Amino acid sequence: MIMSDQILSHAVFLILVLFCCTEHTHGKLIMQGSAGFVKGFRTLTSTKKHTYGQAFHDEILQFKNSNGTMTSFSVTFFFAIVPEHKRKGSHGMAFVISPSRGITNASADQYLGIFTKANNGNMSNHIFAVELDINKDDEFGDIDDNHVGININGMRSVLSAPAGYYDQEGHFRSLSLISGNLLRLTILYSHKDAQINVTLSSPEEGYYPKKPLLSLKQDLSPYFSEKMYAGFSASTGSVGAMHYMWVWFINGYITVPNLDLGIPKFLSYPITKTKVALIVLGTSLALALFAALVATGLSFFFYKRHMKVMEVLEEWEIECGPHRFSHKELFKATNGFKQLLGKGGFGQVFKGTLPGSNAKIAVKRVSHGSSQGMREFLAEIATIGRHRHPNLVRLLGYCRYNEELYLVYDFMPNGSLDRYLHGGSSDQEELSWSQRFKIIKDVASALAYLHHEWMQVVVHRDIKPANVLIDDKMNASLGDFGLAKLYDQGHEAQTSRVAGTFGYMAPELMRTGRPTTGTDVYAFGVFMLEVSCGRKLFEPRAEPEEIVLADWAINRWEKGDIIEAASERIRREYDKGQLEVVLKLGVLCSHQAEEVRPDMATVVKILEGVSELPDNLLDVVRTEKLGRWYEMYGKVLDVEVTMESGGNLTVTEPLTSVGR
C-alpha cells in the first residue's frame, strides 16, 4: 500500500512538471549546442569546457500588438547551477528573448552563448536578457562573481545586483548561484508603467518576496520586434558548471505562479575518467611518500623550534640604536602578554615589569594583520630610538621574534590624555587649568625639538590627545611615532600616502598627501583648542555655530569674547592671560592657510612669555597673504622670518625619507 502511494505521488509530480513545461508555454524547448539531459534532468551545459548550450521555445511568441505597442509579460523559471569546484564555476546562464530561435555563431565563456565580441552592444541585435552571472568580467563592468543583471543588446548590464532576495521584514538575504540548490527567478514587465521587475528567491522559503531584487524603468518597445522567441542560454569557460533547467512559465500578462512543488536534489558535478585516474595516481603517490614525509616533517619541526629561539641581528638593526630585548625577556616581563593596556594604530599594548629592576614598561606588539607593520615598526625605532627629551615617550628597546615586532617604552601610569578630556567616567578626575596649560607647553616643547633641535627634521603626522601620555606627576609626553617621517634639515619630506586622524589633518595634506612641519603645527593648533576649551572638535548636537570647535573659537573672537569658547568649568578657574593667548594661538596654528601658521619654535616662545602676539592678530587670522603676515608678525616678535620659519618647509616633490 505504501509503495503504491509513493508511485502515485511520483506520477502526479511528473505530470505536473510536464504540464508546467508545455501547457503554459504551448510548446517545448528545442535544445542546441551542449544542452541535453543528465539522469532525467535538462541541462544547458555539459562537462565540456569553453562551450555553450541553448534551449529555446519552439514557437514564436507575440510581444507587440498590431498597433506596435508592447504587451506585458511575465516569466518564472526554476534552475540550479552546480559548479565543477565547490566555490567557483564559469560562466553562468541567462533567460533570453531573441528575434531567432537559438542564436547561431555566438561565443562561449563570458558571452554566455548570446553575443560575440563583434556584435556585443550593437543596437541591431534586438536581444533582451536577464543574466545569472557566476564570473566577474571587468570588461563588462561586472560587480562581482555572483550577481543578477538586466542586459539589452550586450553583455554590459543596464542594472545589476548581488544575488539574493528581500525577506518579509525587508532585510536583504544573500543567495549563492552556485550552491547547487533549486532557485526561482521571476521577470515581470508592465507595458503600462514601462517597468521591469526581477526577483530571485529560494523555493524553500515558501513565499514570494514583495520587494524585487532589480527594478528598472525601461520601455522595451524600441528593442522588441512584434514576434520573438524566448529561451535560455548558458556557457562554460576554463572552469566547468552544470546549468540545470527544471520548469518554466511564460505568459502574456503579469502573474506569479503560486507553486507548492517538491524540491528535487540535483546531481553533483560529474567526475570525468581523467579526474578519476588523477585521483588514483595522487593517492598512490601520497601513500608512497608518506613515510619519507614523516621523517622530513619531524626534522623540519625540530629545525623550526631551534630557529624560533635564534634571533639574527640584521644590518638595519645595527643602526637603530636602542637596546634589543629577547622575546623570552618580554614574555616573562608581561606574564605571557596577558595584561592588555589598549590597542594602538597598528597593534596591541601590554603592561609589564622588567625582571631585576622592577621597572614598569609598556610593550607594543605590531599586529600580524597590518600590511604596514614593518614600515611603522622601523619608523618608530628610527624616530625615537636616539631621541632624549623629557616630553617624548622614551623607547627602551625593541624585539623582533618569529615575524612578530615589539617596541618597549617607559610605562605611563596615567594613560593617554584623551581619557582625561573625554573619558566619560564619573569618577575621572578633571584637569585643572594649570595642568592643561602645562600639558600644552610640554607637547609644544616636544614638537619644537622634533622640528628644529634634532639633527633631522621629524614630522610626527598624528598629533592628538590619544597620542599624548601622562606620567604620575601629570607631565605630558608625545608618543606613537608609527606614522612619523624623517628628513634632513634643509630637505623636504617625501611621501605620497595620506595618513593621520580626521579633524587633525591640515587642508593641504588632504590635497597633496605631503606632510610638513606646517601640517604638524595645524594638528597642534587643533589640539590646543581641544585641551583649552574642554570639548571635542565636533559637537553634532550643539547649536550650528558651535558644532566645529575652531569655527566657534573664531566666532567668539570676532564678537570680542574668545574666552567664551572654553567650557564653563575652565572659565571659573582660568588664568585670563594664559587662556586668551592659548585660544588665539590655537586659532592661528590651525589656520587654513599654511603660510599664516607660526613654526613650533615661535609657538614655544609665545607660550613661555618670551614673545607676545600682535594686538591686531585677528586681522592676521583673516588674511591668507604671506607677505602681510611676515610684515606684521616679524616686527612684533623681533625674529628673523624665513621661508622655513614662516612657511614651514613647503613640499613640492614626492620621494621617500632622506637617508632611510
TrEMBL record:
The chain crosses the membrane at residues 276-303. Its EC number is 2.7.11.1. It is a single-pass type I membrane protein. Pfam families: Lectin_legB, Pkinase. PROSITE patterns: PROTEIN_KINASE_ATP, PROTEIN_KINASE_DOM, PROTEIN_KINASE_ST. GO terms for molecular function: ATP binding; carbohydrate binding; transmembrane receptor protein serine/threonine kinase activity. InterPro entries: ConA-like_dom_sf, Kinase-like_dom_sf, L-type_Lectin-RKs, Legume_lectin_dom, Prot_kinase_dom, Protein_kinase_ATP_BS, Ser/Thr_kinase_AS. It is found in: Cell membrane. Residues 335-618 form the Protein kinase domain. One of its GO terms (biological process) is defense response to bacterium. Its main location: membrane. It catalyses: L-seryl-[protein] + ATP = O-phospho-L-seryl-[protein] + ADP + H(+); L-threonyl-[protein] + ATP = O-phospho-L-threonyl-[protein] + ADP + H(+). Keywords: ATP-binding, Cell membrane, Glycoprotein, Kinase, Lectin, Membrane, Nucleotide-binding, Receptor, Serine/threonine-protein kinase, Signal, Transferase, Transmembrane, Transmembrane helix. ATP binds at K364. Residues 1-27 form the signal peptide. One of its GO terms (cellular component) is plasma membrane. In the N-terminal section; belongs to the leguminous lectin family. PANTHER family: PTHR27007. This is non-specific serine/threonine protein kinase. It comes from Brassica campestris.
